[in-house]
Predict the 3D structure of the following.
Amino acid sequence: MDRIQLCASTSTGVLRQDLLDLLIRSDAFTLTLLLAPAGSGKSTLLQHWRARCMARQVFYPLQARDNEPLHFFRRLADSIRAQVSDFDTSWFNPLAVASSLSPRLLGELLADALARVEGPLFIVFDDFQWIESPSILEVMAVLLEQLSGHVHLIIASRNHPGFALSQLKLDNRLLCINQHDLRLSPEQVQQLNCHLGGKALPADYLDSLLGMTEGWVAGVKMALLAYARFGTQALQRFNGSQPEIVDYFGHVVLRQLPPQLREFLLCCGLFERFDGAFCDDVLQRTGSALLLEELAERQLFLLPVENQPGSYRFHALLQDFLSRRLLIEAYARLDPLHSRAAHYFLRRGEYEQALQHAHQCADQVFFLELLEHSCAAWVRCGQFGDILRWLEPLPEVQLLAQPKLLGWLIAALSLSRRFHQAHYHLELLDNLLHNRPDTPLDPATRQFLALLLGLFEQDKDFVPPPAWRELLGPGQDVEIRACTLAVIAYQYLLAARLQEAIRFASESKQLLRQCGHSFLESYTDLIIALCHRNAGRATHARKQVCLDYQQADQASPAWVNRATAMVVVLYEQNQLAEAQQLCDELMAMVNSSSATEAIATVYITLSRLLHRRQQQARASRLLSQLSCILQLGNYARFVSQLAQESMRQALLSGKSAAMEAVAERFELPARLQAGEWETVRAYDESWDRLGLTCVYWLQARGAQAQAARILKVLGASLQRSEMRARHLIVEANQLVLAAATQTKTQQLEALSRLVEAHGIVNINRSVFDEAPGFAAGILSLVQAGLLSVPDKYRHYYAEFLQGVQVAPVADPLVSGLLTGREVDVFECLLSGLSNINLANK
């Protein structure tokens, strides 16, 4: 009977069941390759697997002397004979190596000998990185080509084995477990910590530890041993300078490298990521790409950068170790390396990387010049967060010495709605200009900064000073002129002067494109689209928005503006699934530097979509979050949009208490008592939307006559304005109120006049939503046979015009907190089932 070698079940280390399950699949592959740096847990994993594998195993732990062919094959044959009694040495004799037998023939003989072994057999090579002999590697390659299906090889190595694997991959005969698979998970770190006798790790320390070690088993173990001895203080100080880490990397990584490769590796430790071209340029050498490939094959903690072929980075601990060694061994080289790296990234337009290296240079003049250049580029593409991140930490003295940087900071603060800080820095600039008239800053720049801050802080209440026209005068800087035109166009939009807004925005758009201001150009597109939409030119607006969106780069901040306009188009055309998908994408991208128009549109539209699907808890949370955001400035216009939507949702849900709460919150009773909607006035969006909010509330309270009077005043105001889309919504609400006292014929006549005045294309989803009951009135006329609706329109708005009911979607808040039986009970209660009937059910 064959002697089967079984490992002791009490092997060291934490059992990693996920990896063990993966390795157990090796019986389906010719070769299983464990490829990872030293200290990644390869040997421990093999030990656990061998303890559980009931098939015959040949375990061959390799050493440096095994790289000699005669020694390798003799030990291999002895190992096989020790485990497999029916292995016939007449088919293979290691001494044949000495007689110059070709590696190919030797490999074929070995494969033939193994083919005659009965039953499954695993041959396990550990530490295969010692094998570099061409003869051995060629035999292994031939063996893998011809190996019988019942024989499997497992190779654990720090380096890529020196034979081709492509055919094995194509034939699906290769299972590869790499350093990414071998990383410890948070749960496994806690298990190992317990195994080493440490107390449970707090979550923040666990995250920090994994961030530094990247799950590398040896690094984690070193950190946990320190934690077990010295507590959390040891984890706080854990980095590449720990004696154990220094000893480990010094021995495993640096000491085994030839001098040229060692120096190359040491210098690369200064950089976050690098490729062949970068290393050639910065290290002033050639052939770096080949060296990087060699280092990667050695598995020296060199990790490929995702989605950047040929680019690499170091394991965090190794980079920390290398940068510290470079500081000790080659301090004089640091400044030139940083300088060349900064210039390299600057040429590529990678300003963040360039600044990081320039900041380390002795030449701080170069750093500040680069910072000015970077801020100018970031303003043009809308990366205001980057400007704030670099400029805010600078001392005030340095900002005053670089007035252009102070100007970029004021602009970024204004556009990020940090108005108090913007005012403070604008005062600093004013004092500088007053005390030092020779300051190299164009006075027009200061005027523009004040204009920008005033508009974004005061919104619709902003009144531009007469001096703004000087910014458009002859000989003015093109960028100042272009940006001023955009700001004034937005101010005209807020004042409902749509034609002037379009004219200014169109001129600004052309100049901005010339100057490369992609972000503000997208802002002018948004202004133009909103103007056309508000003017009742829905088709024109949709075409331009779709065209702009198709050409937008999603990686740029300008995409947020274009995608926001696209959300409105999709929503109003009733393409709700697409609108929600785009809203979800935008929610992950809008930030403090995004246009308030974009933020409010995304939050309100997504809330409306969720409410329609009866996910009321999520819809309400979004409106609450928007309310918090709008507290940062004078945003009466957006607050009125929030009020209208809050009241609309409460009305549709039949929640009278919620409606009363909204009315109190936005002071509707006090406004009514003050007669706010009794007199026609110039158009004001806040006044319009709060008026509609009041109409919803009064309707629910049965005060239709009072609601009708408000609609009449709003309608008269809108009749005088260019806001045709808002006028349409008010008139639709008037039709809903009047329908209660009209015949079907009178309702049809009123609807016909509305369509004739505004065009059917402008009666979109927003009209149906913001005039509750309007869709039901149209449907009643259709069902009575009095109204014929175009097929395309009926298709777009089938939900309203064909009586199609939207299937409610369970609110995840409810489904997440309740069991299945509790959800059934909850739904029965909502349906009005009594307690007795509920108990019987």
